[in-house]
Amino acid sequence: MAYNENNVILRVKDLKTHFDVTKGIFSKKQIVKAVDGVSFDIHENETFGLVGESGCGKSTLGRTIVKLYDPVSGSIEFQGVDIAKIKGTKNLKSFRKDMQMIFQDPYASLNPRMTVGEIIEEPMIIHNIYNTHEEREARVVELLKIVGLKPDHIRRYPAEFSGGQRQRIGIARALAVNPKFIVCDEPISALDVSIQAQVVNLLKDIQNEMGLSYLFIAHDLSMVKHISDRIGVMYLGHMMEVGPSNDVYHNPLHPYTVALLSSIPISDPNIAKTKQRIIPEGEIPSPINPPKGCPFSTRCPKATDRCKNEMPQQVEVGNRLVSCFLYEK
Question: Helix, strand, or coil here: 41?
């Protein structure tokens, strides 16, 4: 896929999302810097994979992009409009039609008191799509077929379905308003391994048919490589490395990406014996009190005094962006 300025659908620049977690009125103010200055682009028809350890800010970033959380600063340009500055659900309504989300937990994200038909139809009602209930119901049946469910499932309730089937319902709900961009927030992490590949392949097929763009958030690096065109690696609220999926996976540049990829299990015991696993020393710092310089400096084997005092900026290394002084020109 050829990337240029004209086919950028989403541009995130210096985005910060902080949360006040102060416990009492006499307590010292504590701020969690969940997302702290992240920048990247997503192009039309592209899947941008986002990986990192638990607590690094991946899901918070995804929810901030669709404005479930308000950013402290930075911009979220969607189709050329900075939606970070737009306040109020009413003003965001037109953008929410084009930006949808598939949630991580298929058990908690579906209303148990609504039928499958009502769940998928609800976004159409909110956004005034189709004039009659009959037209909307016909579209619901069509969406159920697209995601691999049966038309007669329309009258059933979420409790009657397995986890994989519920996630398919969540996908159908996201597709109901014909969006252009979908945030997939760890959509396979709560599913059985045997079902994960089916859901990922379904998302790829839907993307090819409808020309969608995805932000695909996940823990499973091999699965992210399978579905993503490019990958962004997050650590402690910062973007460490961004680049084409194969390049990042087979030739990681940032020390954190190298360590992260070395942790992937290998099924072949002969290859596994020769593979060197890199385990960063120490604990992940608290996002309430992050390190002064590079966020990875406290665990990085290549850290210098400069790393511990200065924040590295993203630099271009071929077709990649890396936040590391090792690659500074």
Answer: strand
Confirm if 61 and 239 have CB atoms less than 8 A apart: no
Give CA–CA dist 314/325, Å, rounded.
Answer: 9
Position 72, amino acid: V
- Rounded to 5°, angle at Cα 125 from 124 and 131: 90
- Distance between CA 216 and CA 224 in Å, rounded? 7
Among 167, 234, 181, 169, smallest CA distance to 15 is for: 234
Whether 63 and 100 have beta carbons less than 8 Å apart is answered as: no
Burial class (CB in 10 A: 0-12, 13-18, 19+), 297: buried
- Is the entire prediction scored with pTM above 0.85? yes
Question: CB within 8 A of 46, min separation 6: which ones?
Answer: 1, 3, 9, 213, 214, 229, 230
Predicted pLDDT at 271: 55
First to last CA, the chain: 28
Give bridge partners of residue 36 from the DSSP assignment: 16
% of the chain at pLDDT higher than 70: 93
Cα 43 to chain centroid distance, Å, stands at 14
pLDDT digits (tens, 9 = 90+) for 108-167: 999 999 999 999 999 999 999 998 999 999 999 999 999 999 999 999 999 999 999 999
Instruction: Quickly list DSSP for 163-224.
Output: HHHHHHHHHHHHHTT--SEEEEESTTTTS-HHHHHHHHHHHHHHHHHHT-EEEEE-S-HHHH
Instruction: Output the six-digit token pair for 45.
Output: 């028809």
Helices (H) and strands (E) in the chain, counts: 11, 12
